[in-house]
Amino acid sequence: MKENAVQFLFKYGAIILLVAIILYFSSISDAFFSYGNFSDILRSISIVTLLALGVTFTLVVDGFDLSVGSTMSLSTVVTASLMVWYDMPLWLVLLLPLLIGVAVGLVNSFLITVIGIPDLLATLSMMYIVAGLHRTYTEGYSIYNNMPLTSGGTAPGQLSEAFLWIGQGQMLGLPVPVWIMVIMVLAAYVILNHTRWGRILYMTGGNAEAATLSGVNVKKVKTSAYIISGVFASMAGVLFTARVGSGQIDAGAPLLMEAVAAVFVGYSVLGAGKPNALGTFFGAAVIGILLNGLTIQNLPYYAFDIVKGAVLVAALAVTYVYAKNKFAKS
Amino acid sequence: MAQLLDMQAIGKRFGNVTALENGQLALEKGEVHALLGVNGAGKSTMIKILSGVYGQDSGDIRLDGETVSLHSPKQAKEHGIYCVYQEVDTAIVAELTVAENILMDSFAAGGSFLLSKQKINKQAKEALVQLQSEEISVTRKAGTLTLAEKQLVLIARALVHSAKIIIFDEPTAPLSLTESDKLFSVIRKLSSEGVGCVFISHRLPEVFEISDRITVMREGKWVNTFVTAESHSEGVIEAMLGEALSHELEYQPHPAGTGLLEVNGLSDGHKLKDISLSVGAGEIVGIVGLVGAGKTELAKALFGAANSVSGSVRIAGKQTRIKHPGDAIRAGMALIPEERRKEGLFVRETLRANASFPNLRKFSSGLFMNKAAETKFAEEIIGKLKIKTGDTETPLLHLSGGNQQKVAIGKWMSLDSLLYLFDEPTKGVDIGAKVDIFKLIRELAGSGKGCLYFSSEIHEAIGISDRILVMCDGQIVKELSRQEATQERILLYASGGKEELNKAEKLSERERSPISV
């Protein structure tokens, strides 16, 4: 009986929770259940979902990337600086931050696969280093149009309209960031669940030693996952700059734990029991809807972390209780 | 003799796997009682229930006629039941002295806060004298002892707590003949003082030498209890295997070619020294050695899963450089590793995903996986290897050890490899699966594949191999043809020839049966 209840909760718990939250907020607020509000919610979770997709890839290979928040921060200020300070063309502004993500991913995987530092600790160190880099790069200031430069005068460039459209525009009735998120979630889903590479990622995460003895180059596979994670984080940074219209410093730091929470909520969607792209999106949505509803309810912003933490611990509890039962005899 | 222990109708389930259905064991004061059975027969579960590691689901345990419940190792020890495990290192604290190790349980249990070194040393010394092992200094660090000495420390630990029952779980597996003899004289001494000993061993000759009675278990059930003096090894083997299966483990001749694999001067700068060997098409070559002889290292070195390996490897006449398991697989090799759950399988993944993994390209179109093709192949090997499973989507952790092992073998079938390396393939699998695995290996050989069979189960290696290479201390010390290979000769070379020849003769006296189990 108890076992069945746990199983049921694990499979449908997250969905039941989501429906319950939606019903609850709809019943107490007319503003909540509307197209406009849902489109707002989706836009608000688009950035954190991108971050979380990256974390998903590293968790799939049994790693963990804590540096995604910092990578996003760095990418945010670099993106802004490329336009504002250096007046570069749009394609370079979109490309260079992604290369930063690749670079962070490469350093992470070097520390992990070559030197042998555990994932969590290696990426924790990188979290600090990259955070420090991005503050040093801007000397602690945010970057905005027409900002005064330390060398005198004002910045030569502007965040262009075309660039801002990425973060603020609409397309076919939905905000552009939502489209980007949907495409990336589907791409990650297809890659992880239906391609050979995705299978190799999952199997490597399941048992690296067995994967090696089946002919997999585990170091390369892990490296690829960390590069993907870095790229997703820098995409999140580009999107953030376009959304806010300036290069805020420390943009990514508060989003790290939210992204991690989204991934772990995703574990328990439809009983997957492992990191997965659709679950991650779902997890981000649960958190987004909860925060949106609580905002409508006038919960002060400084209490939000309590809610996020509670969602994370609930998701972890369900996942681990389930794992304990399912894998008890192994 | 008085009844000391009586375990009746013991049952134990793990999830939906029945480990014990009707376990029985009776022990009298001063008796040495051997508990036999093939892997998976339920011996270890019985022992773990007796020593309080698991609680039984059904059945009674009586000590001196009184029903007791043993819910923790501590309770079992309070009742005077001690266990000398095969892995002695798990029970010894290397940093402490011999004396501290011997008396560990008493000061772990509390008592006075301050420990008197002198008192401890004195008590420990007394126990060792009782075991005729006073040559072990009580002030030495336990980590510096040999395996055999560590066993004696564990026995001494049982003695100082006036143990009534001592369980010996395959104590002789890692010992040399001299050390085994010494252990036997200690066991005899213990039994003469009224201690009941439960003795587990895979070596039948030893069992006949040391035990008073033999209880045989099969598939979780009690089969029979023999009085040793009145029984023969043939009867005991049949009880262990069941009549129909016992002949499957005997050698069946088949033709064998040459020149599939040739290895020359292989070393890893560490364990393996100058290994040369060859395997022919359709040939099964046994590589036999004691635990720690370097068999697993050799298997991994051949398969490219070890560092700094030097030497030349030719496969089907072609010089091949193997730096990574990927190279080995492309060159036509397949490895079934010893630690299948750790190294061979993805236990949380489905049977389908495990089966297709070594050859994903075959089961994908372009970049995308083709699940239908995977499922088809998984069904194929389920049928071919008689794998007992729910379906192709069952996670492997729900399968028994033997069925998991079949998947670990079956997953290579999509590659059509030339050469199969089996590292202890029968470890921890039940007898039915063992027979299936033997049949499978013979089939592979019959279709012209080469097989290397790494094993420390000498009798099994004799049963399957066309030729046997004996390993000792990282080297191949002897090649024996099928006709020359006998258990005692292999043991002699495997233990480094250090044993005197008369020991070997003595061993052949012990040898009452061509096969043991």
From TrEMBL, chain B:
Residues 5-244, 255-498 form the ABC transporter domain. Coiled coil: none annotated. It holds the Pfam family ABC_tran. It comes from the Bacteria. Keywords: ATP-binding, Nucleotide-binding. SMART domains: AAA (SM00382). This is Autoinducer 2 import ATP-binding protein LsrA.
